[in-house]
Amino acid sequence: FPPGTTVTVEKDGTATITYPDGSKDVIPGTDLVKPLNPTDADRITPTVPEKTPVKDVTNLTDEERKAVEDKIKEVNKDKFPPGTTVTVEKDGTATITYPDGSKDVIPGTDLVKPLNPTDADRITPTVPEKTPVKDVTNLTDEERKAVEDKIKEVNKDKFPPGTTVTVEKDGTATIIYPDGSKDVIPGTDLVFEKVNGARGLLPYTGTESNLEVTALGAMSLAAALVLIARKKKEE
Known about the structure:
Blueprint: E1 6-9, E2 15-18, E3 24-27, H1 40-43, E4 52-54, H2 62-75, E5 85-88, E6 94-97, E7 103-106, E8 112-114, H3 119-122, E9 131-133, H4 141-154, E10 164-167, E11 173-176, E12 182-185, E13 191-193, H5 210-234
Parallel strand pairs: 4-8, 9-13
Antiparallel strand pairs: 1-2, 2-3, 5-6, 6-7, 10-11, 11-12
């Protein structure tokens, strides 16, 4: 540290280093401090088992919740101290309570999966190259059709027959599969505002395009050649 550097530490252990030129570095408290007397939850990182297939990932049956609980206990049998309990919620989220009262939580999304996955569960649409449009907030029918066609083309080997693609005014695309499930691709991933053809300006910047600059250069060169030719003729 150069002379004049200061270090301040917050209540949570986070340290802010301020250098003589006013610039700063921050080190999170989690990297600098640890409990003097760590809890079971501090010491133990639960192993997450393979996902359990369930009929409804938002509303597990008692049998499905028990299956998730048993899997967690099995893969952690060498980690959990005696007296550890595991409770599983309707959405599959598991709370592990250790003998000292500390807890770990594993989200249901990490523990369960649909028993019968939908088309949207199975398919990850490929996002095509962005389409240039005049106004990214108000696509024309032709521009929307161009986006739709691009999505269908790059996904022709993925989309099952009967898949439809609809594109909104802002370029957002909704893909509806034959089973009724859906995927959505934001318009910001699909379109961009093209150069304004009237003035050759780049969107939002006011910077002249290369085309206009080149044209002006060519005109200047032509004018210079005319003057030279005229001068030679006069001589």
